[in-house]
Amino acid sequence: MSLPSKATTSLLRHAGRQQLPALRSSAALVQKRNRADSPFDASTSHAEFTSPFHRGTRNEQDTTVIPNWGKYRSSSSETGNKLFQYFMVGSFGGLTALGAKNTVQDFLVNMSASADVLAQAKVEVDLSQIPEGKNVIIKWRGKPVFVRHRTADEIKEAEDEDWKKLRDPQPDEDRVKKPEWLVMLGVCTHLGCVPIGEAGDYGGWFCPCHGSHYDISGRVRKGPAPLNLEIPEYDFPEDGLMVIG
Amino acid sequence: MLARSSLRSSRAFAAAKSPAVRTATRNASSQSSQSAAASWKNTALLSSTTLLAAGSVSWYYYQFGRPTQAMTLAEEGLHPPKFPWEHTKLTRTFDHQALRRGFHVYREVCAACHSISRIPYRKFVGSLMTVDEAKAMAEEQEYDTDPNDEGEIEKRPGKLSDYMLPPYQNDEAARAANNGALPPDLSLIVKARHGGCDYVFALLTGYPEEPPAGAVVQSGLNFNPYFPGTGIGMPKQLFDGLVDYEDGTPATASQMAKDVVEFLNWTAEPEADERKKMGWKVMAITTVLFGLSVWVKRYKWATIKTRKLSYTPPHAPAKQPGSSFRRFQQHGYEQKP
Amino acid sequence: MSGLLNTIYTAFVRRNAVFLTTIFVGAFATEMVFDSGSNLIWDSINRGRQWKDIKHKYMSNGGGGDDEGDDDDDE
Fold first, then answer.
1. Of A167, B204, B303, C8, most Cβ neighbours within 10 A?
2. In this predicted model, what pLDDT tens digit does every residue of B9-18 receive, in sequence order?
């Protein structure tokens, strides 16, 4: 029973109890009029309700009867309805996945190098300035890069070496793009010192910190260093020009 | 008495709640004049309470809520009018031809005193200039190298990754050259000033022929009503025909001001074009997603919301006609004295 | 009509794995179509205003290196 009608009845009951018995009938009259006036009164709104389970005689009600829901049934085919429902749910999921993917992607892109770092990530080297048999050290991303213009003798020496017996076996052709240009990161693979050029027992580089020797292809030959000197990304876009990075 | 109290409570708490209540109060109040008097008092009480509440709120606002003006209008500067900027519309990008012209104006006029030191040359590539143009421009400037083997710092031509050089070495040099006034860096000026584009445009074009009568202009300053305090160190800079645009646009003062403002908006928000496009995309997708989510919600709830529960009490019904529900209720009433 | 619906239903919805695959493939297809479509609309609204509309005026003869640089910065 709803609150307002409860208030009404309690009010009327109190009023009736207080007033003279003669007034009682008038109070009841009011109550009756109330019911007739207001269509929202709980006691009248269910007057027309007939239970869909109501069958048989009044005293014996059959509660196992399934009512007829026929007028609620969709008029289009079952497969069509199912397809439509799956389409709606599926495209909801698909679009959500799309949004999630782009959100995650944006966060991941945030972590990659920013534009100012990328702008400094490439260094151009004018190769015509480097005579044959000379080393040049270039700063690239805060690290030194060795560029060696090798002579024909040095190329032959590097290629003839029996590389399979070395500590970090690697043939010379894997370490250079053009045999006369050797480009390496100038960071000793042992503990990160910068090796000295044209020094050491093998005519290449020598790390003064712990005495690692590298040959003319930058391969470690002696000392504590475990690996050959690292090769950075580089390219020759045109003659006489090299881009590192 | 009880009737009145219950009436008052139903009035105060459930005013106009349902027609049933209203009918009840009407019927009940017609029975006694006391109730009518009470309702008049109620009205008076409610009105005075409302008045008190409204009054105290307005008193509080009067005391503490009003904005206070620390400065006069002249000290705040004249508010700039709204100009119909095309590039600030939500669906429009910058006009990159205008950006090119604006940069031209900046280089020839503004760059003598103002820096845009947050802009690297690479930013011009792909929005204002070709790579070759930007490289050539960068190489005109000299930058310090890293210390060489002897620890000396040399000079090298600029690269695309370098930032624009300021016209002065430092703020002190800038002040010394400009009568004590510091020309601000213009990279973010459109974002940094109240009024944005409108303010900068109004400032650039707002110099009167001579200061109005009664205006006090200190020596070394110039009168501009849009500048807070009206005394600005920068004299009028833009005059008709000051620069020669490469695309042949007539270089009126307002054209130059418009172009340079658009350029300065670009330096402040170089991402604006992409941001607006992304915003539209996101809104389109989200709208479709919202519609779908409403449909899916209705779909999932449809079976639950359209359920019908029917309850038949297990005891034998009385003899009156009508549904069992009603009979049960009436039965309950009549039992009570 | 109902035969066609049945074919679609059995082809894409019947098995859950197939349904999920359809959703994700559809999502990627939607993304590509939506992106290119919205770019098209955006470019037509802003015709003549963007750098790609005016850069041909400033790209003198040697264009190879310029294109490379533009691609880097357009992103």
1. B204
2. 444 444 444 4
